[in-house]
Write a structure and sequence with these properties.
Layout lengths: L2 E3 L2 E3 L11 E4 H6 L6 H7 L4 E4 L6 H85 L7 H15 L2 H15 L1 E3 L9 E3 L8 H4 L21 H8 L37 H10 L53
């Protein structure tokens, strides 16, 4: 069923068509010399030939084949109706997608002129490449003998760069902290409305900030050769997990911390002690965790283990001091044998 008329089903039960055998083509009309030709007719009508019934052809031939044609047409229409019924849900589901796709197609339409211009310009590039590519090939051929001359230099330079590359987090922090420390600004009262830059800095309070000692005291934690990503160890101090920051030198850790504070030095003008009693008490309170016992807050003293720099090539030996070995050549990262 295709539709309803006054509440009753209405449908197409068959379709019929018949074409006589006789043909009248545009070429036939052109041969008649009636002032027309095939091109003229095709441009205006799109018709190439016509079917014309013969004068002696009886209509009975047409009606003879019509019942069979109608039967076959009815079956075709029935199948088309069933197909339409089955595909209707699919078409319904595709409608939202079609609505979503419409803006995309419109955007592509707007992009079409630019794409056309791109491909048009590529023609110029293609033409230029006919001369440019041979010239590039010739340049590379001449460059090839020069490249081996860099090999001895790169044998030395590449391992150094690879070693430094393992310290990317530390280098990033160094440059970032430089900016953070030097770009702070404020408008103090004495500056008369002018913005003044100041240096951000902070130091832990401990006895080494207050005096100069002839040798390292027990709270000192030196390490000029940190392992890679060693900054993460400071976070371990807060979380209580993992190992604390390593120290390069640990022989002094048992030396203790001086607890003598002298206030014998007098101010030449006032005659009063340079280090008065209030300052002495603050030093004892803030620079020591237990002044009487000579205890100062400091990270645990843990010896840094021997290591080979985490680079390619790795050092031939493991030591406390990083060693970078010469590469086998200037274009690989393999350590030279025996070095």
């Amino acid at each position: 069923m295709l539709a309803k008329a006054q509440g009753r089903p209405v449908g197409i039960t068959g379709i019929g068509a018949y074409a006589p055998e006789r043909r009248l083509t545009n070429a036939d009309l052109e041969a008649m010399d009636i002032g027309t030709n095939d091109q003229w007719i095709m441009e205006r009508t799109g018709i190439r030939e016509r079917r014309i019934a013969a004068d002696d052809q009886a209509l009975s031939d047409i009606f003879h084949i019509l019942p069979t044609f109608e039967t076959e047409s009815a079956e075709t229409v029935r199948r088309l109706a069933a197909y339409a019924k089955k595909t209707d849900p699919l078409i319904t589901q595709l409608r939202p997608a079609a609505r979503e796709l419409s803006p995309t197609l419109k955007a592509l339409s707007d992009l079409a002129p630019d794409a056309k211009a791109l491909f048009r310009d590529l023609d110029k590039l293609t033409a230029a490449s006919k001369e440019g590519l041979p010239a590039t090939t010739e340049f590379l051929n001449q460059l090839h003998p020069l490249l081996p001359e860099f090999d001895p230099v790169l044998q030395q330079l590449n391992p150094i760069l690879i070693f430094i590359g393992n310290y990317r987090p530390e280098l990033t922090a160094f440059f970032a902290n430089t900016v953070a420390a030097t770009q702070a600004s404020n408008i103090p009262g004495y500056a008369k409305g002018q913005r003044v830059h100041y240096l951000r800095t902070s130091n832990p309070i401990n006895p080494e900030n207050l005096s100069v000692y002839p040798r390292r005291i027990g709270s000192n934690r030196p390490n000029p050769y940190q392992l890679t990503k060693s900054s993460l160890a400071f976070n371990n101090l807060l979380t209580g997990t993992g190992h604390p920051p390593y120290s390069y030198e640990t022989r002094h850790c048992g030396s203790g911390v001086p607890t003598e504070i002298s206030n014998d030095l007098l101010d030449p003008i006032s005659g009063l002690p340079v280090i008065g009693d209030p300052l002495v008490e603050n030093i004892k309170k803030f620079a020591y965790s237990a002044f009487g016992a000579g205890v100062v807050l400091a990270p645990p003293c843990v010896q840094q283990p021997k290591y080979s720099p985490t680079s390619k090539p790795k050092s031939s030996t493991t030591t406390l001091y990083p060693h970078v070995d010469q590469a086998l050549n200037g274009y690989t990262t393999t350590r030279q044998k025996g070095k």
